[in-house]
Amino acid sequence: MKKILFGIVLIFLLASCSSKTSFEDRSAQLPDEIISVIEPLPDDIKDEMLIPTKLLSEEYNVDFGYTTEPVNDPNGKIVLTYFIFADVDSDWNITLNTFHTPSTPSHESKDNETMKLKNGTKATYSETKDGLQRGIIWTEDDITHEITLIENPERSETIYTKEDFMEVVNNLK
What separation, in Å, do the N-terminal and C-terminal C-alpha atoms of the chain show? Predict the structure, then answer.
């Protein structure tokens, strides 16, 4: 009986530690000031958020925010979290949105491409004619994620390919 009780307690302890460790692991490359804003958020929100493990360059700035319902109510329900990653040389800007409610943006267009992410999830990909803006949106477990890459519009040609962008998308944790 003691072995069973010990086993149950051990499983409970491992399960309760796993989500915290998961967030700590996923957020390891974020600046401390961003982590300190995210840490007080509910665990379910942190679990639903995706964080890039690979970006297009090594040096970038990060911003994080969220939207509540009712808007700006500190006790309101969090409906959207977002990261903005900006290259220090202004070559690119990546916005990563997580919609924590069923109401999601629509990207229906005849120019969109349906594709599968590395994990098998169906996603909708789009880009502008000049290739300077790329976006992809998908839903997993009733949570919608949207990531957008915008290259410097002062340039006439792209630096990053669709494959570069998809590498970022497929390395979200």
Answer: 39
Q: CB under 8 Å, gap of 24 or more: what pairs does 75-83 form? A: 77/101, 78/41, 78/42, 78/45, 79/103, 81/41, 81/45, 81/48, 81/49, 83/51, 83/52
pLDDT attached to residue 58: 92
Q: Which of left, alpha, beta for 74 (phi over 0: left; psi -120 to 50: alpha)?
A: alpha
pLDDT tens per residue across span 81-135? 999 999 999 999 999 999 998 865 665 566 789 999 999 999 999 999 888 999 9
Residue 58 contacts residue 29 (beta carbons within 8 Å): no
The alpha carbon torsion through 28, 161, 49, 78 (nearest 10 deg) reads: 130
The answer to whether 83 and 100 are in contact (CB under 8 A) is no
